[in-house]
Amino acid sequence: MIINPYLSTGIWLKGNLHTHTENSKCGHYSLETVIDMYKSYKMKYDFLAITDHCMLTKLNESYEDIVIFPGTEYKYRDYQTLGINIKDYCDDERNYDNHQQLFNKVNDEGGLNIICHPHVYEDNYWPLEELLQLNGYTGLEIYNNNVKFDNKGRALATDLWDNLLSNGKKVFGFANDDMHVFQRCGCAFNMALCEEKSSVSILESLRKGSFYSSTGILLNKIEAIDNRLYLELKHHNIPVSFKFIGYKGKVLKESYGHEAEYTVLGNEKYVRIEMNREDGCMAWTQPFWIE
């Protein structure tokens, strides 16, 4: 049986969950400027989380045309995480032993916990052993655009994702800008399939895994019918390479084109789909668990 995280119907909404304003020492723009960037022509994001370092930036009750989530990036430098949709900030930023308590608090408030840039300074920035012991995080950043531009680590962390999935951790993969400067705005995003454009609906879809992550590739369909997985690109003018990936990162099938499908055998444990385009753009579905 295929456990499908995606809603059967809904609307696709585009969002970034890692964003800094001038309230962060490494940020440069006011809150209003940052929001305007993500609402601007052809960007047109539907949701955004403001995650300044070790604080909670004050927001208005609502914003026109975009859903804004309050959030923070916990910890001074090491073992950083995102708390999305939190009500207040309370933490010792140099205490690296209270992550489970933080995760529990965020979850109790109806928020999401996301592991930040796992390979930012070194491959072991977030050790596998640590993440296996922790519970209550929704997922990890499998792609962080700021790490790519800074050239200070590896932006991609799908290797760690497969290790977690293969050890039974049912966690999702996020792609985020980690926006500090304008040139790094709009390069990585999450496309959530939601019932409606509201904070409640968006959070529910993210929490259940009804989203895919991307650096530019857009999808029209993600389906799981009987024992068949099927994907179709939104635009058919540029084909992509599809990889169906399973337990321990094993490539189960590869194909090239505007659509792809895979017949589940039943022994894969999980299947996730990764897409690569010749211009460097990527996209990732969430894992389909096989039971």
Automatic annotation (TrEMBL):
Gene3D superfamilies: Metal-dependent hydrolases
MF-aspect GO terms: 5'-3' DNA exonuclease activity; 5'-3' RNA exonuclease activity
PANTHER family xref list: EXONUCLEASE, POLYMERASE_HISTIDINOL PHOSPHATASE N-TERMINAL DOMAIN-CONTAINING PROTEIN
Protein name in UniProt: Polymerase/histidinol phosphatase N-terminal domain-containing protein
Native source species: Clostridium fungisolvens
